[in-house]
C-alpha cells in the first residue's frame, strides 16, 4: 500500500529575511531540491510555483501577478497562486511552512510505507 507524503526542505531562515529579499508583487528564481521554482510575494504572502508554464512550457520568470494569479507572458493564461489552476491546466505549486528553525517548502512523493 502506498501513500502520498511530503518532504519538507528548508530554504530560508525566516519570513523577515524573505520580506527583505523581494518586493510585493514580484518574484525571484530559486532552486530548491534541484527544482527550478519561482518564489512569489503577492499581497504580503509567499508562494512557490514551478518556473514552467503548463501550457507550452515557457519560463514564467517574466510573468506578472494580477488578481491572485500569475499571468504567463506568452499567451496570458492566468494560474491561481494558491491552487495552480487556470485555463483547464495546473501549474505545479508547493506549500510553504514556517518551522522553529526556518521556512520550508513541501514536495509531495509516493511512499510504499
Ligand atoms: S505558454 Fe504559457 S499560456 Fe501559453
Task: Kindly summarize this structure in a few lines.
The chain is mainly beta and 113 residues long. It has one helix spanning 15-21; strands at residues 3-12, 26-32, 35-42, 45-50, 64-66, 69-71, 78-80, 85-86, 89-90, 93-94, 96-99, 102-111.
Task: Note down, in words, how this protein is organized.
The protein is mainly beta and 113 residues long. It has a single domain, classed as 3-layer Sandwich (Rieske Iron-sulfur Protein). It has one helix and twelve strands. It has a four-stranded antiparallel beta sheet, with no helix packed on it. A three-stranded antiparallel beta sheet has the order 1-12-11. The chain has a three-stranded antiparallel beta sheet with strand order 5-6-7, with no helix packed on it. Strand 6 and strand 7 form a beta hairpin. The protein is globular and about 40 Å long. It starts with a strand and ends with a strand. The mean pLDDT is 96. The chain binds FE2/S2 (inorganic) cluster.
Largest sheet properties: 4 strands, antiparallel
Which small-molecule ligands are present, each listed once? FE2/S2 (inorganic) cluster
Annotation, overall tally of beta strands: 12
Q: Radius of gyration, Cα only, in angstroms?
A: 14 Å
The CATH architecture can be given as 3-layer Sandwich
- Principal-axes geometry comes out as globular
Amino acid at each position: 500500500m502506498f501513500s502520498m507524503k511530503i518532504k519538507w526542505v528548508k530554504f530560508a531562515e525566516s519570513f523577515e529575511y524573505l520580506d527583505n529579499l523581494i518586493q510585493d508583487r514580484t518574484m525571484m528564481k530559486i532552486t530548491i531540491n534541484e527544482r527550478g521554482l519561482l518564489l512569489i510575494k503577492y499581497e504580503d504572502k509567499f508562494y512557490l510555483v514551478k518556473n514552467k508554464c503548463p501550457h507550452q512550457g515557457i519560463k514564467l520568470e517574466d510573468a506578472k501577478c494580477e488578481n491572485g494569479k500569475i499571468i504567463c507572458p506568452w499567451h496570458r493564461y492566468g494560474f491561481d497562486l494558491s491552487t495552480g489552476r487556470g485555463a483547464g491546466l495546473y501549474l505545479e505549486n508547493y506549500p510553504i511552512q514556517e518551522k522553529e528553525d526556518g521556512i520550508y517548502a513541501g514536495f509531495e512523493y509516493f511512499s510504499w510505507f
